[in-house]
Amino acid sequence: MNTNKILLTGASSYVGARMYIDLKDKYTITGTYHSNKLFSELRQLNLKDKQSIKDSVKREKPEVIIHVANHASPRPAFKDKIDFIELNKQATKNLIKTANEFNCKIIFISSFAAIEPDNIYGKLKHESEELIKQTKAGYVILRPSLIIGGSPNTTNDRPHNRLLRSYENKDQVAEYDTSWTFQPSYVGHLSDISDQVIAKDIWDKTFPVVIDKLVTQYQLAKDIIKPLGITVKPIDKQFTYPTLRESTDSLKQFSLKPSSYQEMINTIIKEIRLTK
Ligand SMILES: NC(=O)c1ccc[n+]([C@@H]2O[C@H](COP(=O)([O-])OP(=O)(O)OC[C@H]3O[C@@H](n4cnc5c(N)ncnc54)[C@H](OP(=O)(O)O)[C@@H]3O)[C@@H](O)[C@H]2O)c1
Questions:
Q1: Which end of the chain lies in a sparser environment, N or C, as judged by fewer CB atoms within 10 Å?
Q2: Given this model, what pLDDT does residue 275 score?
Q3: Which residues contact 13 (CB under 8 A, 6 or more apart)?
Q4: What are the tens digits of pLDDT across the range 20-47?
Q5: Strand, helix or coil for residue 9
């Protein structure tokens, strides 16, 4: 067991729950939740409460904070913009201030949306990335694109969980978008890279976390759930998100598994078969 202590925010989220189970046997890790206690040992933390952040960090004394808990798309901002800004920017600011007081490093789960922000989600991820760079003890920014792969959280309305829904509703034809092309991200790579940057002491870096292949959501669905017997149909949702292609050269040092698109698809099909 690595002796580093970790505080992981959003341990009940789709991404955070997977990172929590991947890392919990290797580190002394405290996972936090806000309203959904997915694992009985998680501690409650409302990231919009500055004092609670300070109390948590003071109590847990982590060497590394893995900051996962953010609204994961611009949609919640249409309903409550103030709440959106409080979680996706103000909380980050407060977390960094506290990290600097207690000499903690931060690994921040950002997004490809931060590269060329075209909505409030990308804009705040971009601004949070700039703030994270002020973490004095060290920072790592991980930038995934659309994330797929198994997680203990199977219920949040995230792209991977929509594939699971299509698999559960076997009789319905599943329609998936053909308009937006992107490099997909495998959820387990976020845990692997976090583990390795801590173990190898790699700090003050930003990594794109993607598989080097451009696909659409239709192609992903066809490759993952069609072999499981689901009828997948293309639909043009006329998304206007930019197509960004980032080099994956900086990821080679991590020898990530699965390492290719096809390996990732095979891994995810196995994960889905195991959960259902
Ligand atoms: N999923 C993707 O495809 C994707 C792609 C790129 C980047 N990301 C990034 O990955 C991270 C996780 O995304 P996700 O898809 O796993 O999100 P998610 O499943 O929608 O989870 C969002 C999390 O935010 C937490 N939260 C909400 N309000 C909070 C508050 N006031 N205090 C503390 N926590 C609060 C929720 O906690 P409770 O459930 O306990 O209420 C929940 O765990 C985000 O930073 C997102 O931007 C995701």
A1: N
A2: 78
A3: 68, 69, 72, 153, 156
A4: 999 999 999 999 999 999 999 999 999 9
A5: strand
In this structure, the number of other CB atoms found within 10 A of the CB of residue 247 comes to 9
| CA gap 253, 177 in Å, rounded | 33
With tokens 């002796």, the residue in question is: 3
The torsion angles phi and psi of 185, rounded to 5 degrees, stand at -120, 145
Classify residue 152 by burial, with Cβ atoms within 10 Å: 0-12, 13-18, 19+.
middle
Is 47 close to ligand 1, i.e. is its CB under 6 Å away? Answer: yes
Name the phi and psi angles at 230, rounded to 5. Answer: -100, 140
Give the global pTM: 0.98
User: Of the residues 8, 14, 187, 217, which should be mutated to test ligand 1's pocket, given the most ligand atoms within 8 Å of the CB?
Assistant: 14
Q: Give the distance (Å) from ligand 1 centre to CA of residue 88.
A: 10
